[in-house]
Amino acid sequence: KKLPQLRDAINGYITSEQVxxxxxxxxxxxxxxxxxxxxxxxxxxxxxxxxQELTILQTAPSIRSEFTAIRIISEIGTNMEAFHSAxxxxx
Length: 91
Prior knowledge:
Radius of gyration: 24 Å
Structural class: mainly alpha
Largest sheet: none
Shape: elongated
Number of strands: 0
Mean pLDDT: 91
Distance between the termini: 61 Å
């Protein structure tokens, strides 16, 4: 009973229903990838005024991605006067 199923899997046999499902999944994945690219473009545009700060942040070890630097700035801002010390910032 299992041997025919195994042969079908090895030979790449899939039903027409499975083909239909795979097409829907592929279209959904491609749509998500497109939305992700649009969001990344929007985020980069919104972060453009902070390019100098982003560049400085990216010199720190382990902050290589521009999106990592953007996330940090979005959380703490650029006004460091709010923090009394580096320890206060990191706590």
